[in-house]
Structures are given as structure tokens and as C-alpha cells.
Design brief:
Layout: H1 2-11, E1 31-32, H2 42-58, E2 70-84, E3 90-103, E4 108-121, H3 124-133, H4 140-173, H5 177-185, H6 192-227, H7 231-241, H8 251-303
Parallel strand pairs: 1-2
Antiparallel strand pairs: 2-3, 3-4
Helix pairs in contact: 1-6, 2-3, 4-5, 4-6, 5-6, 6-7, 7-8
Length: about 325
């Protein structure tokens, strides 16, 4: 069933990050998030974002913008700061990192853990970056923290499944099929019951989507043809019909309409060709008549010339 879902998403695309992959669907994803208004210097913030992404990737929960709802974030607290005599003088910092997994939409934290780290550098920023590098993505506390967050996410889908389906059906009634299918496809495979329910509904909504699309395009094509029945118009409407999904309910009707258009176009082309040929033949005949007229003029002219032509010194080589 997962393969079916992925194929559906090939058929249409929603606005999103170019790095989104099809296999991001059907699994639990955590997106790295650090608020812009925190006091972490830019370089240290980038290092922390990289570390959080390593943590989720190493545990099979690497994020992408395919589902921005669930996040992993961190809060840093410097517990001690010491100056180490040089040269060069160094700064050593002990830092507590509180990691969180939660729902960014409802602003709910699912799990958290505290990791103690230490870093040394020539200034506070470098000491902070050094400390962040020392976070071990395979730390048992971090692994347990992620597992707890994962279970809370599974519980979310389990308890909210009926609401997710209802919301999708409401969107479908508004013909927002892409959004409806997208929301349903976010249900992770590990949520077995909900996953299979939503998979079946996705198939139904996708059929509704392509059927609706087919009717609209066929109607547009017929309207175009009712306006001007010429080759240019036919090319435009056939381009519209050719984009119809072959599995749509009205595909056969669209195909038959295309055949009618093609037959009509061929007849028109033949008539136009015959007309063109007639015009060409008429023109050629007129030109022949003109040539004959020219010849007649020349003949008459020649008849009136005196017979006094003298050939002088003609040499054939």
C-alpha cells in the first residue's frame, strides 16, 4: 500500500522543500528547530542545528519539510565559565543542554532529557561550539528520549486518526484533494490501524481527484471546440485532454472525443489541401494562359519584322 501512496504523490506535487523525498512519507520525522530569538551566536547555532540533525538521522528520524509538525529542539544553559591561563588564554564552559521532542502545532512537548557537555576555546563562542561537538548522538539517554518522543507521536496518530480522516474528507469535499491526500499520507506505517485506514481513503480520494480533473478538462476541451473548429483550436484542446489521467472515469469519453477531433481535423486538412491544390492548379493554368498570351504577342511581333537578319562570323566552338 505504501508504494501506491508514493505513486500517488508522483502524480501531483505540493509546494515544499526541494529536498523532500518520497520515502519521507510513512515514517516518523523530526524537524530540527531553533527559534530565531535565542541568544546563541550564529556559528554556535549552526553547529547545534547540525548536531540535532545528526541525532535524528542516526536514529532513523531525520527530518525534512514533508511534515513540519513534529520537532526536535534544544535549550542551552551555561552552568560554569572558567578562564584558563595561557598563553593563549582559554575559556572553559560547562553547559547543560535540554533536548525536547514535541508537537509544534499544538505547542506540546512530548519528551525531554538533559545532557551535560563541556567545551574549551579562545572565546565563549568557540568554547560553546567545542562543547556542542561533544554531544554524542548515540548517548543512551538521548536514544531513550527519542524513543519516548516517538511513542508519543504514535499515540497522537492513534488517538487522532478519526479526526485526521474527517478533516481530509472535508478538504476533499472542497476539492482540495492534494492537501487531503498529503495529510493522510503523513500517518506513519508504525501506526498500523490508522495507516491502513488512511491508505484506503487515499486511494478513494485520488480517484475522486482524477475524475474531477477529467470532467473539468473534458468540459474545457468541448467548450474550446464549440468556439472555433480549426486546427489551432484543436491543438490547444488536445493538449488539455492529453493531460488527463488514464485511470479517470471519463478517460474513455475524452479519448473518443479526441478521435472525433482528429477525424475532423484530417477531413479539414484534406479539404484545405484540395482547396490549396485547386488554387495552385488554377494559378498554374492562368500562368500558362498568360505565357501563351505572351507567346502570341511575340509571334505577332515576329511576323511583323522584316526578313533582313544577317548572320555574321558565327564561330562554333
Amino acid at each position: 500500500m505504501k508504494k501506491i501512496i508514493l505513486l500517488f504523490f508522483i502524480a501531483f506535487q505540493f509546494n515544499g522543500n526541494a529536498q523532500v523525498k518520497l520515502d519521507d512519507f510513512g515514517r516518523i520525522v523530526l524537524n530540527t528547530y531553533l527559534p530565531d530569538n535565542n541568544s546563541i551566536p550564529a556559528e554556535a547555532k549552526k553547529a547545534l542545528e547540525t548536531k540535532l540533525s545528526q541525532i535524528t538521522s542516526n536514529n532513523g528520524m531525520g527530518g525534512s519539510s514533508v511534515n513540519p509538525r513534529f520537532i526536535i529542539t534544544a535549550v542551552l544553559n551555561v552552568t560554569t565559565k572558567d578562564i584558563v591561563p595561557g598563553p593563549p588564554q582559554m575559556i572553559a564552559q560547562n553547559i547543560e543542554v535540554t533536548l525536547f521532542v514535541g508537537d509544534a502545532i499544538t505547542n506540546t512537548a512530548f519528551s525531554n532529557t538533559i545532557v551535560s557537555i563541556k567545551g574549551v576555546g579562545t572565546n565563549e563562542n568557540k568554547a560553546l561550539i567545542d562543547a556542542i561537538k561533544n554531544i554524542d548522538p548515540k548517548n543512551t539517554d538521548i536514544t531513550a528520549f527519542l524513543e519516548e518522543g516517538k511513542n508519543k507521536i504514535i499515540n497522537y496518530y492513534t488517538t487522532q486518526c478519526d479526526f485526521i480522516i474527517k478533516d481530509a474528507e472535508t478538504l476533499a469535499k472542497q476539492e482540495k484533494y492534494d492537501e487531503a491526500i498529503y495529510n493522510l499520507a503523513l500517518v506513519p506505517e508504525v501506526c498500523k490501524d490508522c495507516y491502513f485506514k488512511t491508505s484506503d481513503i487515499i486511494a478513494t480520494l485520488f480517484q475522486q481527484k482524477i475524475d474531477t480533473d477529467c470532467k473539468a478538462k473534458l468540459s474545457k476541451a468541448k467548450m474550446l471546440w464549440s468556439g472555433q473548429q480549426n486546427i489551432k483550436q484543436a491543438e490547444e484542446l488536445i493538449a488539455v485532454i492529453s493531460d488527463i489521467n488514464p485511470n479517470a472515469a471519463c478517460y474513455t469519453a475524452a479519448a473518443n472525443f479526441t478521435k472525433e477531433i482528429n477525424a475532423k481535423i484530417k477531413a479539414d486538412e484534406k479539404a484545405r489541401l484540395e482547396l490549396a491544390l485547386k488554387k495552385y492548379n488554377d494559378k498554374m493554368e492562368l500562368e500558362k494562359q498568360q505565357i501563351n498570351a505572351y507567346k502570341e504577342i511575340a509571334v505577332e511581333y515576329a511576323k511583323n519584322q522584316p526578313k533582313t537578319i544577317t548572320y555574321n562570323n558565327i564561330i562554333w566552338r
